[in-house]
């Protein structure tokens, strides 16, 4: 291979070679980190909720003025919604996965425990949530009708009417009881002891701060009233969603024309709204990466074309001395490979540095080692593709050029 | 060694055909030192580029070392250039970014020769032209005569059957030209076949045989009427 003579040649063109190396290094450093950030955002966006997202609708309504007989009104509302053709089940829930606000509690394993075992577990209230949300119960049982109490009663009466049982998510169960079955065990939420009667496979929290604990959730047998941001959750067939949503809004208004519908959306809209900023950031980062790579590729094409023009006579001489077209092609590809390799090595050091900065200032995790070879391969490929045009032009220089002045 | 029969080279544009060589016949035997002379534009350099397989020709036949070359593809032509032909150009054509050693090494690398053999051949060739001590110098650090000696070393390193020289002393002063010519004569005495294109009568006179090219054809000066109209050429073709 012509590596040593090529390196010797590059040493005599230090400035131009250094510029390309720097360009490749910067691109490598930024692309490695950007691809890592994009990967993280995409992981976030694809976080499973554990619920039947394509069957659910959410309607939030607020009453105007006094709302007497809240229990009766909500019971009537739910009954009215169930009458709509296509409605499978319905509940009023305090929150939904990927919602913008969340209800949380710390969990201890005993009343006298000083520090909670889990600092923040999201708590779902609402009748028949496992059934309406389509959450799979993988151990124990669902709540029964006589397990439920009303939210305002539980809130007013303190510990006396607070539920004594709970269902928790599998992720939380594994965290609290890593060695065994959680069903039948007692935990403490706030100052209330509750016995775990069931475990659901997955139920993701709203307002996720830390995706590693996004699956820590608990359900309590509490019926919600139309307060504190609670909303109607309707389950229907995917194809029926738009029609049922419109019918449900009409029905709710018909049942109370003073009611104001503040939000009506499918769960697809919930997810879309929640991850809007992640998608925007992903698009921005991909755009920056693509733009950087295009600029780098153009730099390589420019330098390659310049060198081919500058070395045209030299290429003719090489051809005259016996170089085949593929030898000339390989020369320029090897030269680019060497420049890219030096750039990539420097770029990886820079990528590591940028990552340290991001870790210090934005609490990002360490850049996994896998991104270094990914970045290297990407930049090598980019370099080879970019230099191909100039290299093919070089390979087409005829040997007779050697004799022309 | 080199035989061209009724060879033609035509440059065509949309409106005109220009014959650079027409019914060109030449036969150079192994071990000969032939000077090809002629006025500017006569076709000498075209002959050399075709002889060196740097260009294709339009008609006729060309046998090089017994091989009819017109049907060879680009790779085969490259291989013949690399293995059988050594080039010495007027402008030296050294690669300015490579030192003397690396310049001489260029054709050997394309031959796929092992490193140890390459090194041996390069040093032998540089010894022969008296520049072994300049192996690490770059062309810009050498005089014109030394650069041409490096070019000769590069041509010799591959042990070619045929040396093609295009005005090898054209860019040199008299003293340097003389030393380069003496080197070529020495190489010839050792058995090399040399074809040298030149318009320098003194240089041509040192060759074993002169071939005269006028208007793209080899001519016998004694019989060609154009020669009699251009008496100054006599000196060039003694």
Automatic annotation (TrEMBL), chain A:
GO terms for molecular function: transmembrane transporter activity. It comes from the Bacteria. Coiled coil: none annotated. Keywords: Cell membrane, Membrane, Transmembrane, Transmembrane helix. Residues 290-399 form the ABC3 transporter permease C-terminal domain. It holds the Pfam family FtsX. Its main location: membrane. This is Putative ABC transport system permease protein. It comes from Luteibacter rhizovicinus. The lineage of its organism: Bacteria, Pseudomonadati, Pseudomonadota, Gammaproteobacteria, Lysobacterales.
Automatic annotation (TrEMBL), chain B:
GO terms for molecular function: ATP binding; ATP hydrolysis activity; transmembrane transporter activity. Residues 5-238 form the ABC transporter domain. Keywords: ATP-binding, Nucleotide-binding, Transport. CDD domains: ABC_MJ0796_LolCDE_FtsE. SMART domains: AAA. Belongs to the ABC transporter superfamily. Macrolide exporter (TC 3.A.1.122) family. This is Putative ABC transport system ATP-binding protein. It comes from Luteibacter rhizovicinus.
């Amino acid at each position: 291979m012509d590596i040593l003579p090529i390196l010797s040649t590059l040493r005599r063109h230090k400035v131009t070679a250094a510029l390309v190396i720097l360009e490749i290094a910067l691109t490598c450093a930024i692309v490695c980190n950007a691809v890592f950030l994009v990967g993280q955002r995409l992981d976030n966006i694809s976080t499973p909720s554990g619920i039947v997202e394509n069957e659910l609708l959410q309607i939030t309504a607020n009453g105007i003025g006094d709302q007497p007989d809240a229990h009766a009104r909500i019971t009537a509302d739910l009954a009215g919604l169930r009458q709509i053709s296509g409605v499978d089940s319905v509940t009023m829930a305090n929150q939904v996965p990927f919602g913008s606000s969340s209800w949380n509690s710390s969990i201890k394993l005993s009343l006298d425990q000083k520090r909670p075992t889990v600092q923040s577990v999201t708590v779902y209230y609402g009748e028949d949530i496992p059934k309406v949300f389509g959450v799979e119960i993988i151990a124990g049982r669902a709540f029964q009708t006589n397990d439920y109490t009303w939210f305002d009663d539980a809130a007013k009466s303190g510990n006396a009417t607070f539920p004594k049982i709970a269902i928790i998510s599998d992720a939380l169960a594994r965290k609290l009881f890593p060695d065994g079955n959680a069903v039948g065990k007692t935990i403490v939420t706030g100052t209330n002891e509750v016995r775990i009667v069931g475990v659901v496979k997955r139920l993701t929290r709203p307002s996720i701060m830390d995706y590693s604990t996004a699956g820590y959730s608990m359900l309590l047998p509490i019926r919600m009233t139309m307060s504190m941001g609670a909303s109607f959750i309707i389950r229907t067939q995917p194809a029926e969603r738009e029609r049922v949503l419109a019918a449900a809004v009409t029905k709710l208004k018909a049942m109370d024309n003073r009611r104001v519908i503040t939000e009506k959306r499918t769960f697809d809209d919930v997810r879309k709204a929640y991850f809007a900023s992640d998608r925007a950031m992903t698009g921005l980062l991909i755009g920056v990466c693509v733009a950087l790579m295009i600029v780098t590729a153009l730099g390589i094409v420019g330098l390659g074309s310049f060198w081919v023009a500058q070395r045209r006579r030299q290429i003719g001489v090489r051809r005259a001395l016996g170089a085949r077209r593929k030898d000339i092609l390989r020369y320029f590809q090897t030269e680019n490979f060497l420049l890219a390799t030096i750039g990539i090595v420097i770029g990886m050091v820079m990528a590591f540095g940028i990552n340290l900065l991001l870790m210090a200032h934005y609490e990002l995790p360490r850049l996994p080692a896998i991104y270094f070879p990914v970045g290297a391969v990407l930049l090598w490929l980019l370099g080879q593709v970019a230099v191909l045009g100039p290299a093919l032009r070089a390979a087409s220089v005829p040997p007779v050029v050697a004799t022309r002045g | 060694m080199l035989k061209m029969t009724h060879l033609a080279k035509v440059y065509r544009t949309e409106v005109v055909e220009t014959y650079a060589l027409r019914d060109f016949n030449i036969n150079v035997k192994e071990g000969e030192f032939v000077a090809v002379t002629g006025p500017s534009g006569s076709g000498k350099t075209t002959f050399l580029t075709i002889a060196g397989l740097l260009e294709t020709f339009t008609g006729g036949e060309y046998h090089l070392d017994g091989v009819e070359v017109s049907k060879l593809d680009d790779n085969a032509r490259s291989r013949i250039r690399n293995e059988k032909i050594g080039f010495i150009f007027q402008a030296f054509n050294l690669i300015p970014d490579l030192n003397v050693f690396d310049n001489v090494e260029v054709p050997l690398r394309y031959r796929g020769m092992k490193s140890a053999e390459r090194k041996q051949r390069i040093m032998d060739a540089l010894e022969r032209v008296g520049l072994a001590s300049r192996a690490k110098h770059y062309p810009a650090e050498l005089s014109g005569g030394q650069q041409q000696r490096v070019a000769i070393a590069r041509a010799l390193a591959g042990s070619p059957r045929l040396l093609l020289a295009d005005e090898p002393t054209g860019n040199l002063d008299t003293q340097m030209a003389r030393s380069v010519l003496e080197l070529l004569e020495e190489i010839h005495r050792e058995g090399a076949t040399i074809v040298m294109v030149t318009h320098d009568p003194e240089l041509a006179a040192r060759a074993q045989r002169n071939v005269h090219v006028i208007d793209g054809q080899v001519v016998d000066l004694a019989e060609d009427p154009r020669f009699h109209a251009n008496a100054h050429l006599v000196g060039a073709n003694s």
